[in-house]
Protein 1
Amino acid sequence: MSTGKPRVVLGVGAGIAAYKVCELLRRLTESGHDVRVVPTADALRFVGEPTWAALSGHPVSPNVWDGVSEVPHVRLGQTADLVFVAPATADLLARAAHGLADDLLTNTLLTARCPVVFAPAMHTEMWEHPATRDNVATLRARGAIVVEPASGRLTGADTGPGRLPDPAELFEVARRVLARGDRERGDAARDLAGRHVVVSAGGTREAIDPVRFIGNRSSGLQGYALARTAVARGARVTVVAANVALPDPAGARVVPVGSAEEMRKAVLEAAGDADAVVMAAAVADFRPAAYQGSKIKKTPGGEPEPIALVKNPDILAELGERRRPGQVIVGFAAETDDVLANGRAKLVRKRSDLLVVNQVGENLAFGTPDNAAVVLDADGSSVDVPRGAKEELADTVWDLVAARLKPRS
């Protein structure tokens, strides 16, 4: 019987990271999703059946022969709104890519007609092996979303790419994929599949001396919302993050930077093969002309010396000048006065395809979970985005970007 809740099949592979998936399951159930856990037989060596059953409220088995009257090997995939596999081991990715159906989870993957997400976790050598890379490419070509693993401490003393992303960030991927639509338009939910997008986030800091800097209030929330929604739509995502104190978005490669000069170098390098670049970061327009190697001291009764400023590089304008054919460039404009007039002038000056203009100020845009904006198009049209979650603005931006991207030959 249908519960009326979004139906999620949570597949669990036989990896040590299975214990982290308990937190993902808890977040899914507590947010109103009906979750059926389908582990592989060996996954139960890491986390036992009673734990999955207690957290999901459903019986758990890896066996196609349990509950045969309900035909679970067909029904689970047919009725799911999302199949999310974590950890997706090298073995499980290989079996899925080759269409094997030797347990309940692989049968479910073959019958699913909803979005399917794999969150790999394995040692670096296994992740980077040509066989695994080919299997990942095959799954992505078929429309599955394969989230890039995080880098960090692995089992034992090993460190490198292959770590399961934070469960809270995996939950955000699941939530965004489900938000994109129902099973009937699953392909539309992955309209950035095979694309590489670059997103800048946060705010640059320009050092005055070893302890002081010129900065701004940007938190990186909008840039990270853009990254999460792009991952959920199937893109390969690079985030150039300036001074952001947020968990890395699952599936995105994050390049940390500090100053405008550092951001320029990282963005231009990442943009080399990018289909789209979205400059959501607040880049300082100016920096001190001279850096003081020692802390500037306050002298009794004296006034501080004025700080001379020089212009920082205009990264958005340089992207507009250096763009590759077919590349889509999106800028952001934070304005306090004459918002639309300033935005239209900036759109022309920066040679961008789209410019997201929003009003900033106390409790507006910077550091808040919501945003409102007008997206200006180089063709003269515009789209009003009413105040709402920053993911909603992000999806609107990607809708407009996807419409501009040329089909792959």
Protein 2
Amino acid sequence: MPLPPTVLVVTAPDDLGADLVIRQIQARGVAIHRIDPADLARPGALRMTGVSDGEPLRFTIEDDHRSTLSQSVVSVFWWHPGLPGGWGQRESRAILEDFLYGLDGTLWVNHPLRAQAARPGPRQLHLASSLGLRTPPALFTNDPDRAAAFATEQGGRVVCKTLTAHPDRFVQARLVSPEEILAGADHVRQTMCYLQRPVDKTHDIRLTVIGDRMFPCKVTADGAFDWRAAPENDLGFEAVSASLPLTQKVQKLMQTLGLEYAALDFAVDQGGTWWFLEANPAGQFGFVETSTGMVISRAIADHLVQTALATHVYTPGGGHRASSGAPWQRGSADV
């Protein structure tokens, strides 16, 4: 008897984005198992048993509500699980991840290792530029003299950005002058700095991508340079369209980065050119969906269910395998 297809949702217990997607999956009648990896180190909260014995890796995950066999997992929605809090959680998380990475033919949104390699930074900017997306010149340095010279070359000011989250506060992108850079020379020497030529923009674009579907959203911020730091009442969101040449380049970037999902940020200049800033493999989408009505969570659910099932066949003995190039026959209880 074939095992029922299951979407494994790995997330934090209070994540609203995961909630939106789970509601959509439930409407499709596909089994869902939502887990918080931290529960593996909380006695009795989440129980897992896995076997490595020369045969394909296999495991069982169960809690007080459901039990899931690895053979039934067709897709994994890896969405902002909390960071491990201690050694027990780190050890448990490492074993969970390794078993999940061993799943055969499973669709990930997104695979953590691919998302890590695809994070915003110099490589991502280089790939975007090589594929034809417009990218502002950028400099990465801990040399204050080089940084100040770059700011002078770009017209007397540059955008100072960060690639990682600060543990204590939100660090917004801001404009800095050569004088400010030299005044803070000691800080520059202690940390690599990311500087970029500013775009004389009219507005921003948040382009959410899942599979081959794209959701472009115009963002206005009432004069704020970094819309993420603007008061909520000053923000405006509007569904817009994107040109076919641009979306084709974005699709190539997604494929090159190995991503199924990303939230891409663009700045639009006075002439209407979209300047690529970054692609966040785990960028939030809930605020865009709520503000515009675009069905992003539905598209993610479709991808986790329909796309995943399209790449699997079910066998009379139970379980599934990837259908692409499979040497076995389709079972009588196909899904």
Protein 3
Amino acid sequence: MTALGWVAQPAVFPWIALVLGLCIGSFLNVVIHRLPKMLDREWRTQCAELEGREPPAAERYNLVVPRSRCPSCARPISALENVPLISWAALRGKCAGCGTRISLRYPLVELTAGLFAGYAAWRFGFTPAAFGAMLLVWTLLAAGVIDLDTQLLPDDLTLPLLWAGLLFNLFGTFVTLKSAVVGAMVGYLALWLIYWTFKLTTGKEGMGYGDFKLLAALGAWLGWQALPLIILLSSVVGALIGVGLMVFTRHGRETPIPFGPYLAIAGVIGLFWGAEIVRRWLPLLG
């Protein structure tokens, strides 16, 4: 048996995908932390150039450079301190240098990326659909957490995700190419219309353009048929979480809540269980 044949075995592939997902989750933590800062630097540089000023001097900063370090004491994080899940547990959730607490979110992101990668491998087998599902979930995870932190859905994530969905469905991986193209168009226009209806009615902005692009990307991956379910699920998830925040954390009604994480959650549900939900539960509603 070849090495590829061994990896593709149903009893092996999900475990390899799980480990791969944990490692990708560690990288996603870097993306979540650094990408907004990178965009802020880029915007400041562009503003300075438009105003005819010299861009502010700054050290090289991207997803690779500089090396990861503690934000409190600037101590570099060694490779042994960067092993997914294990390092956080071994360090008891604290920096080895200054003892500052490391957020629980880091291992949760790693665990989420790993578990869904393993599930995608188990669900779809060693197929393009499994790798596509992993890519979709990982990108949605990063985009959702960034939006939760900054109320920003970067084009650097949403637009490549849209094109990747069309690429995978060029070969009918999840839906037909026609369904994917229509899904991207309808996904964008649906929230665009809601945005302008709400703005013209109330004078306020109810969501950002990043939400339009994220729903367009989900339409490109899952097809236009999945969009009503995704919008319904994201609304339900958003309502439940919003009520929970107001009840348990005294989250004010006027404090904006990003919609991207709800779309991301709904997208993952639609990817894995959307067809089953439509088949079993929607007929009960009517």
Protein 4
Amino acid sequence: MDHTPAKIPSPLLSLVPILVLVALLFVTIRTFGSDALSGGSQVVLLTATAVCCLIAMGYSKVRWKTIELAMINNITGVATALIILLIIGALSGSWMISGVVPTLIYYGMQIIHPSFFLASTCIICAIVSVMTGSSWTTIATIGIALLGIGQAQGFEVGWIAGAIISGAYFGDKISPLSDTTVLAASVTDTPLFKHIKYMMITTVPSMLITLAIFTIAGFTHEATASDQIAMYSASLRETFNISFWLLIVPIVTGILIAKRVPSIVTLFISTTLAGIFALIFQPHLLQEISGLPVQDMQSQFKGLLMTFYGSTGIQTGNPDLNDLVSTRGMGGMMNTIWLIICAMCFGGAMTASGMLGSITSVFIRFMKRTVGLVASTAMSGLFLNICTADQYISIILTGNMFKDIYQKKGYESCLLSRTTEDSVTVTSVLVPWNTCGMTQATILGVATLTYLPYCFFNLISPLMSITVAAIGYKIKRTNEKTESIATD
């Protein structure tokens, strides 16, 4: 059955739903701030979907059944990602309460030295972000502590915030636990670990350059040691049973990833293993979470299940540490899942109406070579970050807009997924009115434009993506392992 619209909308008319989306998101974000993801953005997406459907049915004569089928197909396409997000919620809770993440933070902080403070800050935030899969959590917890340490040592807040954000977004970008990483892979139909592996080509050089800059800056700054590191480490040890044995969990997870075990299986095994270690090493915390007065099997069972599915909070006597060890579990992923479903409805309506194809036809004119294709994708991702003020929506729209173009030109989907992450995930925090930019500026107490010049990883990543495309290094095609740009 042919589902081609009877009348294809012009690119200008096709932009109407997107303009409605941008305008409503602007008002929503101004009204709700970082809480816009709790429902406001989802309602806006459905409203923009309704506008798209009205144009499709009225102008393009598209049947409702066709639009509905496109929405269902889109949601079906991200079903695996939604399951992964739920497991990630359980995993992040179990890794934290079992003591895995606190152990990594504890030992990671031991490497801090005044001359290497900026580079160490970047590395620590990267490690925590990889383990938690959340740049927001990393910045709001260990980032706050490191900001205080850096200020005590005399560093400017712009440099400190830049190091924190660079490390946090590096970890967020390559972590299999990150919702943006899972989303970018799923929207472009790319296997998660294949997506992460291919990102290393641009992400690792960007991070090495960033660390080099922070190392040089650290050596040119005279700073004194601070007792805050010792205090924070002591609080971690008093709350958790810190042990090298807990490192077995990330090591096993790494082995499973290296052996290319399916994402859901890997994450489930890792969550289960962390749960077992929580029972062994942190029974007192499980009892505290359960709220039961006696430490027995019932309290352990209840506390463990609550760690998997719900929000938890541990009182440590240290406000920063309280924020760090709090978890959201599976329930904390529901806003993201809700947003993805609404965004898939919008993408389905845009596709069925022919509007997405009409808009992308404009970009095709500038895509004669690989570098033009990648540069157009990167610029579109940045543009959508600025217009929609939300990284999740920008990832979904970028992936949907360019997916067919990459397929028609014979490129593997991992090139699109990598470019999307290189341009959308990392630049969202650089836009003052984006949810990421607003949130991090509020959390750190540093204006977006103050830390922007020092977020070297975030600034370098999209440029590295375009540079690698221009060189033609490991540009993958569906019919060949690699192909040089010279053959385009």
